[in-house]
Amino acid sequence: MSCNAKAATLGLGLLLLGLAIHFGELGVASRALATIGFVVLTSPVASHRIGRVAYLDGAPLWEGTIKDELHGRYGAGAALAGEEEGPPPVGGEEEEIS
Predict the structure, then answer these.
(1) CB count, 10 Å around CB of 9?
(2) Whole-number Cα distances in Å, 66 to 43, 69, 82
(3) How far apart are CA 54 and CA 38, in angstroms?
(4) How confident is the model at residue 16, as a pLDDT?
(5) How far is residue 72's CA from residue 94's CA, in Å, rounded to a whole number?
(6) Are residues 6 and 39 in the same domain?
(7) How do residues 58-73 score in pLDDT, each as one tens digit?
(8) How many separate domains does the chain show?
(9) pLDDT tens for residues 20-44?
(10) What mean pLDDT comes out for the span 5-12?
(11) Beta partners for 67?
C-alpha cells in the first residue's frame, strides 16, 4: 500500500469516525463505518492499479531506484491492451538500474 493511500485512508477514516461521534445517531454511524470499510478495502487496490498502469505507460522511475523488478515482464503495449502478454519468466534475473 503506497504512502498516499495510507494517508488518504487514515484521514478519511478519522473524519468519518468524528462525523459518526458528532451526530451520535445509529444511521449516520452505520453509514460512516460502512464507508470506512469500503475505503479500507478499495484504496490499496486502486493505488496498486494506478502505479502499475503508470509503469506500463512508461512513467519515468525515481532516479534513486536501484532495481526494476518488472523490467521485461510485460510486452509492448500491455498498458493499452489491458492484458499481459504471457506469464512472467520464472527465476529470471532482475535488471539493476545504474
Answers:
(1) 19
(2) 27, 10, 27
(3) 24
(4) 96
(5) 9
(6) yes
(7) 888 889 989 888 888 8
(8) 2
(9) 999 999 999 999 999 999 999 999 8
(10) 90
(11) 96
The answer for residues whose C-beta is within 8 angstroms of residue 89's C-beta and 6 or more apart is 72, 73
Only one residue has cell 492484458, namely 83
| 8 Å CB contact between 44 and 18 | no
95, β-bridge pairs: 68
Give residue 82's domain range.
61-98
Res 78 pLDDT > 80: no
What value does the CA radius of gyration of the chain take, rounded to a whole number of Å? 19
Q: Are residues 21 and 53 in the same domain?
A: yes
C-alpha cell at 86: 504471457
Contact (CB, 8 A) for 78 and 55: no
**Are 6 and 35 within one domain?**
yes
| pTM for this predicted structure | 0.61
